Amino acid sequence: MTEQGTVREPTGASADDAAPTEGADETPDDGATTGQTGASSVVATLEGAGVDTVFGVQGGAIMPVYDALYDSGIRHVTMAHEQAAAHAADAYGAVTGDPGVCMATSGPGATNLVTGLADANMDSDPVVALTGQVPTELVGNDAFQETDTVGVTTPITKSNYFASSADTVGDDVSTAFALAANGRQGPTLVDLPKDVTTDDTDAGASEPSVPDTVRVRERADAEDVEEAAETIAAADRPVILAGGGVIKGEATDEVRAFAVEHGIPVVTTMPGIGAFPEDHDLSMEMAGMHGTGYANMAITLTDCLIAVGTRFDDRLTGGVDSFAPDAEVVHVDIDPAEISKNVEADHPLVGDAGTVVEQIADAMPNSPDTEAWRDQCAEWQAEYPMDYAVSEDDPVKPQYVVETVDEATDDDTIVTTGVGQHQMWACQYWTYTEPRTWISSHGLGTMGYGVPAAVGARLAADDDQSVVCFDGDGSFLMTCQELVVAARENLDITVFVLNNEAIGMVRQWQDAFFEGRRMASEYPWVPQFDRLAEAFGVAGFRIEEYDDVADTVQEALAVDGPSVVDVYIDPTENVYPMVPSGGDNGQFALSEGHL
Amino acid sequence: MSGQGLPGPAPEDRERPTGRRNSQGIRIDPEAEAEHPPRRTVISALVEHEPGVLARVSGLFSRRQFNIESLTVADTQNDDWARITVVVEEPDPGIDQIEKQLAKVVPVIHVRELEDDALTRELVVVKVDADKPHEVQAITDMYGGRTLDAGPRTITVELTGDEQKIDDAIDAYRQFNIREIARTGQTALARGETKTAVVPDYLK
Questions:
Q1: Where is the composition biased (Basic and acidic residues) (chain B) (predicted)?
Q2: Which residue in A304, A428, A570, A572 has the fewest CB atoms around it within 10 Å?
Q3: Segments forming the whole domain that contains residue B134
């Protein structure tokens, strides 16, 4: 049956595992090879881990793994660029909670993954990257398409492995898989030298398991929990700060129940959007640089900050000296290294978010008296509403587009974005009520994240769930080539390009802090995105004035397949409120006049 | 420019809390500045002896801008383990972060900051001019060192000791014109019955 006939004993394990089928004419005695290689062990391990979709780009050194995928039930989605494969896998992981898988060849394939892996690393999204590598005997010789991938990706992965033998490569992949999913999630990588994937081996699938040195704490220390609960119960102005860890830790139910039971207002970080329903009375929405005025007032004046699953990024805290200065901080996190890294925790609670929040709930001696505080929060909500001015004569306001699309879609619609002003409008003016519906590049701020993330999210989402992408013209231009994937796979996604012919956020900063010297931020040469979409085989639409908005949004959403809407937005519109970098959250600017 | 903005009072008209945190995120008394000054300490990590572990650890230090004074690594009583000893100069929150970030590196088995009474030793090899061989020998004897090589133009000696002793000895050798110095960096074990690293049973 095969030319390369190393005759080997069939392995007991694989013969037993395979259910007997009529087609199984390759009986153990007929002298054929088992055909098992390092690559087939890799693929069997992925199958065993329940992977159904992988994103990647073919190439010389990864070919053996692709060859093994040929006979697998795993769906491979060919992306136009490896960066997009990593973003798609990241979004897939963010939507499902299970690791997304991306593949690339050695050298440029692997280095193209770097941005996506760095992005996943900052956002603790579970991703497994498999990269081809030159054969072991050529490693270190600067061979064709060789890169020290393990070295390059060490700082941007949770852990990574150089596979050394066909017999153990399955173990490397299963370890990478388990690590990506376990504890604080993150990206992992396995570098696969070509000889390792082509060598014969008896090894089949390997069970995911984390190394013995990794010990994740589930429950926080009971005494610490008690002290924290007493502090919360005694607080006058408590606030829950829900971070991305609430969603990744599947702790939204616990956090919601706790907030409602004790009447504690909830502020989210940007990755924490969806942890608490934004239409709830207790929701203060997002805090930080472009957070709502009321959220920033609340976290500035709180006397007890219950932070769950957040790393206190500087975009959230502003300058730490002015961050929640009066607050006793209760910090729940699964990663001990996040405790007191940026903001000192008075009550550090290391453990799984849901488990620890439940522990606190059980330990609460009484509810804090928050009536006056909630009234104060409501006053701030009235004082600093999220608002914008609409005038029929002006170009369309981006906020209006976001709100219109929100109204036209179901609550469980997944929103992906690029990075920039459009991303902030998509945070601010969309009402998120469910976890895992806001998929964005938070920590790394990767322009170009939106379209590939929409591809990944679409393949991860339920069939009846809509996926929309808000992008900016600058961000869209960085990865719009991935429309080819949406067209080929007929993925039902709708991309709204909020087009202001600029890298708008940079322009906003230049106007505010660089005396309006708009160096390299204006893009008066952007293509017509509706026609660009059509060239890719994607339905294209354009919105130029208010009268077009509602109908065109409906039409685009109704397309059974990908569509792109080029929205000419008011180029003078900027993102407010805004806390200048390193500033004081309570002193957010409401307009340019405040900056 | 739009400039229309949102409603609400201007930044300076809003209520402000009186408290403050310092630049390390620690809540402080408004009267007293509570910054932690850097201090020098020894951190010991027991790690699985696998390729790349030193690169992972040293990369961690450089990309997080920890101020590292010395770093040594070698085998232990168990072939599967290596011990990394790091001398750092950092404020307390930084030292705390070093321990926690090191503990996150997958092949790291145990990390701890050693007590002040830990047994720390360093080896130095010093090459000086041979103009005054007897005086060099006297200094070497005083510091309990050993002459490795003595020629007509150079003398090379070795010394071991704690950091202070090595610094003092090098100062003393300066009078002979030091040509070259090679120091190993500190290595250390906890004193007496105290364990330098605690290894969980299932790894033994």
A1: 28-38
A2: A572
A3: 119-188
